[in-house]
Design a protein that fits this description.
This protein is α/β, with parallel strands linked by helices and 833 residues long. Helix content is 48%, strand content 15%. α2 (27-38) crosses α3 (48-77) and α11 (291-319) packs across α13 (342-353).
């Protein structure tokens, strides 16, 4: 068989839509047809949800036409492709972004207006897709957008979660987790592909047979099996015909039910296998504080990668007769350690099914995979117990042992007698419970490893992966994260986008560095006034939303001070709370002083098993209840916690923000991308020199930000010398008053003692994230914010400079660097007209 699937057949396909009458290309005809024939509606029964769903189906038709032709061209040209594996894709809503990418927004706006509907109102009906939780998933979504826009042959792979993580409700100030049934009314964007189904196996045992001259052949038998069914979501680019694909796996049983149990009247047992199988794709990140949660989490990760690797290799084998060119045609990117099992899964298929020897399989595998690290937190660097692996994945455990033995021989040869070096690079960790270190597996099994910001990468090189970096010099690179301007400015902030395009043209969404031209308008009165008016409109819009959601009335002319992100101690929402308490106490003590009004806005979910993060949410809500109802404050300070943080909520908050609070302990945040989104929309950063803040300061200028606090090396030095939070507590009366209020029940008179654990973390448990050490600098920087905000023109100039100098942080730039330096792929820009 020749290479390339058209080698023996030059007949081009005929696409059925090519035969259709051209009138079918009219979006209105598609829309009306879907209302009547897909949704079975007429003018007497149609509802607003039907309008949204029919419009989504109509747009999907357009996408499918381009999708089919894109996939055909990729396959015909036998191009190298990248496969992006991520447990999360935090896509949000697709309607608005798809309309913009297909250049159909105005046409559909007018069409719905003629019918008596508002496109904005219809778009609000769309639920956020429950496919992710935090920055990891949002980065993956931005990357998929940039891959399509930049015309790279790319495929995303993930899990089709039925419930996502959870929907957050606030009851009596506490977080309550309820199921996020985002698909209960259907999803017009996804396409079920039942013909693309793979068997995924768990448990069982491994037996081997000796074959003369060929070594042992391994058989994984007596397994419990689950089926992985593919669902596809087309991913369009902006001003390009290419449409890439996001493939998500749904877990189903090998049989719907056991007829024998059913006939004997045991109806629960009859569907037990179906229920157990479907649990795998039921919810994002099950609580792994319990053993069954750990089992389900590991099952999820293996289910995801097994189906994915089987699919990738199946596609490859359709057009190639041998595996020798595999690295020339396939690049697989692991987005953090969750997909790490893809490495031994590929080894299993190559060795056990394709009958390849270990050395050849390992060499090919290493050439195919690359790995992105997203954290330095020890608890986030996944480790799995060997006992659990023996139970669920016995064949993969034996392969990991074999891989590790192979590595140890190399290390022993390079560093004879260096037991410490061997221990530090081993995948197998000895201890109270023997475990497997997934980050080590990814490092060994990949040709390239990257961090996601310069500071983060340096910490990886010098601390986290120091020995591995010495073992594989040059393997570890930096690829600073980025965001897509199509969603985070063009879609989320249309008024500001129009103002920018009016002055510098409309090519900036494809080349964000063009925003530098805005510096020419820093002294333009019309531009400055227009920018201020747009910010005011966005703030009033958010104010209305806050009132609808929480009943809290806020002043649109106050500083909107925003910290919206996953709740975690290292992100230091607690430091922000402490600063807010200090401000409240100052206003109470000096009621006649002229304070700049401020609204402190929080949003973020805490993991269900994360006690401290959940208790902090309660503290924020108690603060809000007391401060917002204190007549002495006179609206000079308000606190808001917006529930159920998600992409669509971020799209409302970010364009309205004045101040972006990015205050993680220096050296703990890998990158962060919220900081970039806020700056792109004209918010000033109040932040530490952590993650991508460092590079943002280089681009924007520290003088145009509010940088405070200890640097990463200072944090390390302070901890090495022996950090004592009492030193700071004793020396600062304001800090002392704030900390004491956490213990004296000032914020919890109805529930005495509930915030004592937070006080204890600061005063008895060593304040691990240095809140007390950075408190004074944080408060002083916050005062500087007030002073600048009094000068509206000076504030606007700095805000515009933030927009103008944020161009480096486009995900298009990130993807270009990945494509050139890691994946070695070329863009294939299609012209399908």
């Amino acid at each position: 068989m020749k290479e390339g699937f058209l080698a023996n057949n030059d007949t081009s396909p005929i696409f059925f839509s090519d035969k259709a009458d051209c009138v079918c290309d009219d979006i209105k005809n598609r829309f009306l047809n879907h209302l009547e024939y897909s949704l079975i509606k007429d003018t007497t029964t149609v509802e607003e949800w039907d309008i949204y769903y029919a419009l989504g189906l109509s747009l999907r038709d357009r996408l499918i036409e381009r999708w089919l032709r894109t996939q055909y061209e990729y396959r015909k040209r036998d191009v190298k492709k990248v496969f992006y594996l991520s447990m999360e894709f935090l896509i949000g809503r697709l309607l608005g972004n798809t309309l913009i990418n297909l250049d159909l927004y105005n046409e559909c706006y007018d069409m719905l207006k003629e019918m008596g509907y508002s496109l904005e109102d219809i778009a609000e009906l769309e639920p956020d897709m429950g496919l992710g939780n935090g920055g990891l998933g949002r980065l993956a979504a931005c990357f998929m957008d940039s891959l399509a826009t930049s015309a790279y042959p790319a495929y995303g792979y993930g899990i089709r979660y039925e419930f996502g993580m959870f929907r957050q409700e606030i009851q009596n100030g506490y977080q309550k987790e309820v199921p996020d049934h985002w698909r209960k009314n259907g999803c017009p964007w996804e396409i079920k592909r039942p013909e693309i189904t793979y068997r995924v196996r768990f448990g069982g045992k491994v037996i081997f047979e000796e074959v003369s001259g060929n070594g042992p052949i391994y058989h994984w038998v007596d397994t419990d099996d689950v089926m992985a069914v593919a669902w596809d979501i087309p991913v369009p680019g902006f001003k390009v015909d290419n449409v890439n694909n996001l493939r998500l796996w749904e877990a189903t049983a090998t049989d719907e039910f056991d007829l024998e149990y059913f006939n004997n009247g045991d109806y629960v047992k009859a569907v037990e296998q179906k229920t157990n199988s479907e649990n795998i794709s039921k919810v994002l990140y099950p609580n792994d504080n319990i053993h069954l949660g750990k089992v389900l989490r590991l099952k999820q990760e293996y289910f995801f990668v097994s189906a994915t690797i089987q699919d990738i290799l199946h596609q490859y084998k359709q057009d190639h007769h041998s595996f020798k060119d595999l690295p020339k045609k396939i690049s697989i990117q692991l987005n953090d350690t969750h997909p790490a099992l893809a490495i031994p899964e590929m080894m299993r298929i190559l060795i056990d099914i394709e009958r390849m020897d270990f050395e050849t399989a390992w060499d090919l595998t290493k050439q195919v995979f690359s790995y992105t690290n997203h954290t330095i937190l020890p608890e986030a660097l996944e480790r799995w117990s060997v006992t659990l692996f023996e139970e669920l994945l016995p064949r993969h455990l034996s392969l990991i042992y074999q891989i590790n033995e192979h590595i140890m021989k190399e290390v022993s040869s390079k560093y004879p007698g260096d037991i410490v070096k061997m221990r530090n690079v081993s995948i197998i960790e000895e201890g109270r419970e023997k475990s497997l270190h997934m980050a080590q597996l990814c490092f060994h099994g990949s040709h390239t490893v990257n961090g996601v910001a310069k500071l983060h990468t340096e910490i990886l090189r010098n601390k986290i992966f120091c020995d591995l970096n010495q073992l594989y010099p040059g393997k570890l690179q930096n690829k600073t994260n980025g965001i897509t301007p199509r969603l985070w400015l063009l879609t989320a902030n249309p008024l500001l986008s129009s103002l920018i395009s009016e002055h510098i043209g409309d090519e900036w969404p494809l080349d964000l560095t063009q925003l530098r031209k805005l510096e020419d308008y820093l002294d333009n009165p019309y531009f400055l006034e227009s920018f201020f008016e747009i910010k005011e409109i966005n703030k009033k819009r958010l104010s209305r939303h806050i009132y609808r959601e929480t009943g809290i009335r806020i002043r649109p002319d106050s500083i909107f001070d925003v910290q919206i992100k996953r709740m975690h101690e290292y992100k230091r929402q607690l430091l922000n709370v402490m600063g807010t308490i200090a401000r409240y106490q100052r206003i109470k003590a000096n009621p006649d002083e002229d304070f700049v009004p401020r609204t402190v806005i929080f949003a973020g979910k805490a993991a269900p098993g994360y006690f401290m993060a959940k208790r902090l949410i309660k503290l924020i809500n108690n603060l809000a209840n007391i401060i917002n109802n204190d007549t002495d404050i006179k609206d000079r300070l308000k606190v808001v916690f917006l529930p159920n943080y998600c992409v669509s909520l971020a799209e409302k908050i970010i364009p309205a923000a004045d101040l972006s609070c990015q205050i993680s302990t220096a050296g703990y945040e890998a990158s962060g991308t919220g900081n970039m989104k806020f700056a792109l929309n004209g918010a000033l950063t109040l932040g530490t020199m952590d993650g991508a803040n460092v590079e943002m300061a280089e681009e924007i200028g520290e003088e145009n930000m509010f940088i405070f606090g200890l640097r990463s090396d200072e944090v390390s030095n302070l901890k090495q010398k022996g950090y004592n939070p009492h030193t700071f507590y004793d020396q600062d009366p304001q800090l002392r008053a704030v900390v004491d209020s956490l213990l004296d029940d000032s914020w919890c008179q109805d529930e005495p003692g509930i915030f004592a654990p937070i006080w204890k973390s600061l005063m008895e448990d060593g304040d691990p994230y240095l809140n007390l050490a950075d408190f004074r600098a944080f408060v002083d920087a916050s005062d500087q914010v007030d002073e600048l905000y009094r000068d509206r023109e000076a504030w606007c100039r700095k805000a515009i400079l933030n927009i103008a100098r944020i161009g480096k942080f486009s995900s298009d730039r990130s993807i270009l660097e990945y494509a050139q330096d890691i994946w070695k792929i070329e863009p294939i820009r299609l012209n399908l007209h």
